[in-house]
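Comment thread on ticket #2218

A.B. wrote:
> Attaching the input chain for the structure job we discussed in standup.
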Amino acid sequence: MSGIAGKLALVTGASAGIGLACAHCFAADGANLVLWARRGERLEQEAEALRRAHGASVRTAVVDVRRRAAVEEAVQQLVDAGSVPDILLNNAGLAAGLDKLQDGDPEDWDRMIDTNVKGLLYVTRALLPHMVRLGRGHVVNLGSLAGHQTYPKGNVYSATKYAVRALTEGMHLDLVGTPVRVSSIDPGLVETEFSVVRFHGDAERAKSVYQGMRPLTAADVAEVVRYVVNLPEHVNVLDLVLMPTAQRSTQVVHRQN
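C.D. wrote:
> Ran it. Output below, let me know if you need it in another format.
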């Protein structure tokens, strides 16, 4: 039997990729959903597909996690409705650019820091006190192998994911004495829109990242998240790193000719 049946899961960045794949897994396991993303039309289309496929209750809101006031308002609406999520999946995140630090674009840096670090903080800060008050909850942060190993030109993106790792560990310590669990799921190469976003829409360059090897898919990562949130409540996975078999580090990848 599913451990999350009847529970409420909030997923940020839910209109595509890993966030959307996790939403499908949660719904298939009987959870109800609150989905946030910036692309409202696409989000509602995917929400309707989830309702048809799984019969789940799905609520949506257009929320940019970089906007603290918008995050706080959206969380307050949930609280006022008596709908504090049992699961928070901090999935919203991105990479922007791939340059040596001395050549980097500060606009790209701001996007990554504001989304990957500050956005995660804003959402968690708004929701976590209610989980503590109610004595239940599981925060799952989407980290990265880049939060364990840096790589050339991945400077600021890696810094944001090291920050996610540190925040996960800090949160885990701060919640001692409560039943609230904290986990970080840290994948290596996953073929989603990630590289297209990083290369500012250059699909051909994005495709080259995965040439000659079989990367993870969003569904692969979602299955790992699904496993972690379904564990008994006395079991907590703090940090889980997963990679495609062809990848052994951020820089060591076997590619077929």
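A.B. wrote:
> Thanks. Noting for the ticket: The domain at 8-242 is CATH 3.40.50.720 (Rossmann fold).
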